[in-house]
Structure formats: structure tokens, C-alpha cells
Amino acid sequence: MEWVRNIAFSYGYVIVIRRSKAKNGLVSYITLICDRGREYESKATIKNSGTKKINCNFQLVGPYIKQYDSWTLMVICNQHKHPPAQYMEGHAFARWLKEHEKHLILKERDENNVSTLKTRYNKCLKPRLSQNYGKAPMQVRGVNL
């Protein structure tokens, strides 16, 4: 599925998993859609927030064929309702760190990495937050001095 995401990314689109089915712990069927697909479902009762979802129809489905040990992709709809993104740096899904980037957070290692400084900072901050969970601010400062 990484191949699909890389191809879409090169054209300025981001593809996400809408649904997947697993049998015995192994994924056997997957539905991929544009990240701007479907309608935004607000969970807020008071605040009316904006959304990037515009019910884009692009959709792929792929069953895993065990006898061939491979995936088969079928195009349900190949049309997007929006133009491609010109700059992926501002795109929320595109900024997510990949598994290998979680260990190597250097931007120069991957030319397709469009994560921002804030994304990398948050990744570095996460272990410290979990290490100091439950401690008072003065306890944290006293240990770190």
C-alpha cells in the first residue's frame, strides 16, 4: 500500500485507509480513499469548526489474494473533486512521520519527508512527557537542573 501512497503523493494527493478487514490477524481487504473524502462528522455540540473534507469520490479497493501472495487493486472512482496540493509541507497527513523516520528524525535522510520543525519537535518531546508523567513541575525541574 506504500506504493499507492507514493504515487499519489508524487501527483499532490494523499491517500488514507478508510477501512480494512482482518482475518486471523492478517489484513485481507483494504479500502483506500483520498484524505479529503467523505463528509466531516462533527462531534462538538457548541463549537462549529472547519474541515478539509469535501466528499472527494476517489476510492480504491484491494483484496489480498493468498494463493498468489499479492494484492489486487481495483479502481472504484479515479476522479478527485479538488486540484492537487502544490506544496505538501502544509498538509497534515503528509507531515506524519514514517516508521523509519521515528528513529532517524533527520530531514536529509528522506527527500520526500515534508515534516515541519514542529512535527519533529513533538516527536522528540513525547518520550520526555511520558517519562515525567505524574510528577509535579517542581519535581521535573529539580531532576533536570
Automatic annotation (TrEMBL):
<protein>
    <recommendedName>
        <fullName>FAR1 domain-containing protein</fullName>
    </recommendedName>
</protein>
<dbReference type="Pfam" id="PF08731">
    <property type="entry name" value="AFT"/>
</dbReference>
<dbReference type="InterPro" id="IPR014842">
    <property type="entry name" value="AFT"/>
</dbReference>
<dbReference type="GO" id="GO:0000981">
    <property type="term" value="F:DNA-binding transcription factor activity, RNA polymerase II-specific"/>
</dbReference>
<dbReference type="GO" id="GO:0010106">
    <property type="term" value="P:cellular response to iron ion starvation"/>
</dbReference>
<dbReference type="GO" id="GO:0045944">
    <property type="term" value="P:positive regulation of transcription by RNA polymerase II"/>
</dbReference>
<dbReference type="InterPro" id="IPR052579">
    <property type="entry name" value="Zinc_finger_SWIM"/>
</dbReference>
